[in-house]
Amino acid sequence: MSIKVRIPTPLQKLTNNQVEVECEAKNIKELIENLDKKYPGIKERLCDEKGNLRRFINFFVNDKDIRFLDGEQTELKDGDVVSIIPAIAGGTELTEQQIERYSRQIILPEIGGSGQKKLLNAKVLIIGCGGLGSPCAYYLASAGVGKIGLVDSDKVELNNLQRQILHFTKDVGRQKTESAKEKLNSINPDVEVVTYPVRITSQNIMDIIKDYDIIVDGSDNFPTRYLVNDACVLSNKPLVHAGILRFEGQATTIVPYKGPCYRCIFQEPPPPGMVPSCQEAGILGVVAGILGVIQATEVIKYILGKGELLVSKLLVFNALEMSFRKLSIQKNNDCPICGDKPTIKELIDYEQFCQVR
To answer: Domain residues for 20?
Structure first.
């Protein structure tokens, strides 16, 4: 019976740099013996002098940890996929608890131990702890992103709870950043959560974003949206943007000078009153959830360097039609911030367009 075995990076030198090999075996113990016959030296990396599995090595059969099956006697059948997961990857050790926590994504060949290390070392700033920032933060914390910054100056209101899933009824009246930090720490104590209970302005944004690898725009107003875009372009920081209204949403990923920025698509904010705010027009809560999760997906792909990002693409979602459209967008050479002859060379604070009067 043929078993597919996924080989982690530290062992690939023994398998002639093969990421996946095939081997025949009836159980894990026999699999190790047969692997060692094909690739001498692999057994001593997996087992100690007594032949027992080393404590920093885990095996998964399909997506199940053999420690919770029959250990080395776990039976194998034709077509099974065995993943070897070492606790050491990239020179830094993952604890057994971390291996267990992130096991379902570590066994993905696109992630593995080295990818999990990238996530644990990553620093992501989320601007807005509301409808978009809440689901985005939930999934980034769950995935093991090591440092998450949260920016929001508001307090939790009862009408937030329909979509802002980081906050509970008991949190009404609390600072959103503190409410969010409490939940994220409960989800994953590995994550360092840094709070900024302030309103983003041209005076503080550059200092806030400077220490982060990628920025998430979960804001709900045009002035912040344009300010964040401009700051990211000027500081060459990647930005994952999303916008939501009623039953619709849109998302794009901006990597400055490698694709269009937000101003390339929409050069200036609309005049006051022309585009209604979420407060005026309403929002279906699950739409915020869907777009926030898309933002988290883009962030994880960027950190891992895997997949196709929404660079030069605008993803448009309509909940009533249950449709996704991916539109091609182009960099505007006349863009006032990232074009050939930029006219915006310093940050601008726009009048608030999205407030209910």
So the answer is: 2-94
Can you give the length of the chain in residues?
357
- Residue showing tokens 């904010």: 269
Q: Of 75, 94, 113, which residue is a domain's last? A: 94
Instruction: Encode pLDDT of 245-271 as tens digits.
Output: 889 999 999 999 999 999 998 877 766
Q: How far is CA 279 from the centre of its chain?
A: 28
* Strand order across the beta sheet in which 323-328 lies: 192-196, 147-151, 123-127, 214-217, 239-245, 248-254, 313-318, 323-328
* 278 shares its domain with 172: yes
Per-residue pLDDT at 263: 92
Question: Quick check: is 136 in a domain?
Answer: yes
DSSP element (H, E) containing 210: none
Give yes or no: residues 306 and 264 share one domain.
Answer: yes
Q: Helix, strand, coil proportions of the chain in percent (round to 5)? A: 35, 25, 45
Is 334 part of a structural domain of the chain? no
Give the per-residue pLDDT at 45.
84
Give the model confidence (pLDDT) of 61-104 as tens digits.
998 888 889 888 999 999 899 988 876 444 446 777 888 899 88
Q: pLDDT tens digit string along 99-118?
A: 889 988 988 888 988 899 99
Return the top range by mean pLDDT from 128-137, 214-223, 259-268, 280-289: 128-137
- Cα 330 to Cα 98: distance, rounded to the nearest angstrom: 41
Tokens, residue 262: 């937000």
Q: Please give the pLDDT value at position 280.
A: 54
Question: What is the average per-residue pLDDT within 197-224?
Answer: 94
What CATH number has the domain bearing residue 53? Answer: 3.10.20.30
DSSP secondary structure, 20-70, as one string: EEEEE-SBHHHHHHHHHHHSTTHHHHHB-TTSPBPTTEEEEETTEEGGGTT
- Could you tell me if residue 355 is inside a domain? no
Nearest to 220 by CA among 127, 147, 106: 127
Q: Is residue 110 a part of any domain in this protein? A: no
Is residue 246 left, alpha or beta, with left meaning phi > 0 and alpha meaning psi from -120 to 50? Answer: left
Structural domains in the chain (count): 2
